[in-house]
User: Fold this.
Amino acid sequence: MYVTELVSFAVKVGFETKADEWMRVLVERRADCIETLDRERMHYETIFKSVRNGRMFLSWFSVQGIAGANVNGSPHEIDELHMQYWKECIDRDFEPQKFDHVVSFVPRVVDQAVEARDMTFSTQPLS
Assistant:
């Protein structure tokens, strides 16, 4: 069993350049980011950037297994860096926009692969 989410967060006004730097760091350290996914029971995570009414937003789309570890407290250095940028750039006074998942269209072979991967998590401790 897994959860599909899409959530959009406003970037603090004046922190757009810093948010772009953050995204560049994640792109450049993609391999480090991928190493963190198992701990979070994350099957797939992607980030989108948009500008609406002159305001920058960063949106996370994810497919995640149940009971994954939270990014806070992670032993991975990239997660600590990611959270530093998050605290600096994300506007906590602006309510995140959560989208309701309605339907996914996933080829059976992909769905089976995710389900099989999800099953491996039940035998692995969170690290």
Notes: The chain is about 35% helix and 25% strand. The radius of gyration is 16 Å. Residues 6 and 42 are 14 Å apart (CA to CA).
